Amino acid sequence: MTRRATPKKPLPKRPTITPEKEFAARHLGVMVAGVDEAGRGPIAGPVVAAAVIFDFSKRRPDGLRDSKVLSEKRREALFKRIQSTALTYGVGIATAQEVDLINILEATRLAAIRAVEQLDPPPGALVTDALDIPGLMVPQLPIIKGDAKSSSIAAASILAKVTRDRMMDAYHQQFPEYGWDRNRGYPTEEHYAAIGIHGPTVLHRITFSGVGFFDTALRRSPIHGDLRRRFGGLPAGNVESLDQWRVELEAVRPILPPPDYTDLLSLISPETKTKESQP
Q1: What is the residue range of 116's domain?
Q2: Which residues, in sequence order, are CB contacts of 168 under 8 Å at separation 6+?
Q3: Number of domains composing the chain
Q4: Over the range 202-216, which residues count as b (16 or more CB within 10 Å of their CB) and which as e?
Q5: Looking at the structure, do residues 28 and 156 belong to the same domain, yes or no?
Q6: Along the 279 residues of the chain, how does pLDDT read in single tens digits?
Q7: Rounded to a whole number, what is the largest CA-CA distance in the chain?
């Protein structure tokens, strides 16, 4: 008996630059940036947005797709190609604390604004993945499933996703109990079980369901505790000493949660040390 071959699932339709070109034509040929985000659904970690402008006259990277349908290896390869071929690109981040303070939608908009503000030259219009950004006073075209239709939105989705995954991998080094190298901060059974045992960290979104809104003893990074004891126990010294401590702090910044970094930076500021040394 001959076994029939299982037909291969066709690849999703490739996004094009057409939405950008048509929107640019409606606005006197301005440069159009594509904007997308990663990390609206997790219960831990930041939300990350990216913005990308492609030159219409130049070739874009082959294989651009919505980041969600690509393998991690493919995303990493495209990440580098997008950076080298884009006219300009930017990445913006809103922390878990900002998510808790202003809600996930407004934090997503904030991250998008920060990404767009990095673009040089700045865009005259935006196409987005169904996101309106009131804080940016340029023409905007929110496109439903835009990351599957627009090349620049697809590129932005890849930059945002890879950036956020790398951040969560770094944070995993400080908090390995939560499995962030696997779940990237999303609400899995493993993640919820770890919160039940260890409690939430300063990287968790405490206003999200299942995290622990009333838990005030948020876990800080082990590095934070070590450095705080050192910085807090040393005299103010001179400017050279403070500069050396800053160098040490910057060396571990990639794996420090933002609240821990801010706390340590304030601890070794000249103003703080001067106040501590006063009788």
Answers
A1: 18-166
A2: 44, 45, 180, 181, 184, 185
A3: 2
A4: bbbbbebeebeeeee
A5: yes
A6: 455 655 555 556 789 999 999 999 999 999 999 999 999 999 999 999 999 999 999 999 999 999 999 999 999 999 999 999 999 999 999 999 999 999 999 999 999 999 999 999 999 999 999 999 999 999 999 999 999 999 999 999 999 999 999 999 999 999 999 999 999 999 999 999 999 999 999 999 999 998 976 666 899 999 998 888 887 765 555 566 778 888 889 999 989 999 999 999 988 876 655 444 444
A7: 92
In a shared domain, residues 226 and 160 = no
User: What is d(CA 213, CA 210) in angstroms, rounded to the nearest whole number?
Assistant: 8
State which of 166, 193, 213 marks the end of a domain. Answer: 166
pTM of the predicted structure, to 2 decimals:
0.89
DSSP letter string over 188-249?
Answer: -HHHHHHHHHH--BTTB-TTSTTT-TT---PBPPHHHHHHHHHHHHS----HHHHHHHHHHH
Domain with residue 103: its CATH number is 3.30.420.10
Q: 27 and 108 share a domain?
A: yes
